[in-house]
Amino acid sequence: MTSHRVRRRGIDLWLAIYGTALVALTAWAIDRDAFDRVDRLLFDLLNSLPERLHRPLWVAQLLGVLGVPIAVAAVAAATRRFRLALGSVLLVPAKLIVERGILKQLVYQQRPGARIPGAILRDVPTVGSAFPSGHAVILFGMVTLLSPYLSGRALGGLFGFAAVATAARVYLGAHSPADVIGGAAAGLAIGALLNLLVGVSRSPREQSPRERIR
Q1: H or E stretch including 119?
Q2: Packing angle between helix 134-146 and helix 67-78, nearest 10 degrees?
């Protein structure tokens, strides 16, 4: 039975709870201006980094676009990781629903170019709602979906890269730190819920000898 080769991890339940709580806390803080000064201070710190970082950080943040989960799904399907492929495909509509259908309807925060004097804008929009960062949702949603299939070192490297790519959105002037924190938390929650929904394929090491023969 193929069901024996599928598992649902307890850590995904905790990630979903933690991510949802952090999104709610960030949304509340933005709505109440609870840490606006800290948000602006951190924005200025990242946004004013040297111009020589522009090109590499611009390239890094491209991994947060909507096409990336589809590309990952194609690779996963080609390597017979069908549950990972399904989760990656579902991440796209889930991201759009949570980001645009829920969070942007509940919380409105202007782009840094419209609310932070002296913000350096590097080919990014200045109008529209900035919370949450859609790039951060995709990046951390993908990290969570991939986490069951990676070793600790590889997962740590991927998480670090996602953090850098997310911070790049602040450097470019598209978002403030609060926007990307909320987006990353939403991505964690969505990715974890998708892992729970579709299940995680067990690796050969986790299968019994009888299951490996099957």
Answers
A1: none
A2: 20
Percent of the chain residues past pLDDT 70, beyond the cut? 92
Residue whose C-alpha is closest to residue 174's, from 80, 66, 18, 64: 64
Question: Angle between the 82-96 and 134-146 helix axes, to the nearest 10 degrees?
Answer: 160
User: Closest by alpha carbon to 98, among 167, 19, 160?
Assistant: 19
Phi, psi of 6 (to 5 degrees): -120, 140
- Rg of the chain over Cα atoms, rounded to whole angstroms, equals 18
pLDDT digits 0-9 by tens, 101-145: 999 999 999 999 999 999 999 999 888 899 999 999 999 999 999
Distance between CA atoms of residues 127 and 133, nearest Å: 14
pTM for this model (two decimals): 0.90
Q: CATH fold of 2-213, please?
A: Vanadium-containing Chloroperoxidase; domain 1 (1.20.144)
Q: Which sequence spans correspond to the domains of the chain?
A: 2-213
Digit-coded pLDDT (tens) for 28-69: 999 898 889 999 999 999 999 999 999 999 999 999 999 999
d(CA 157, CA 4): 30
Cβ pair 88, 76 in contact under 8 A = yes
pLDDT at 22 over 80: yes
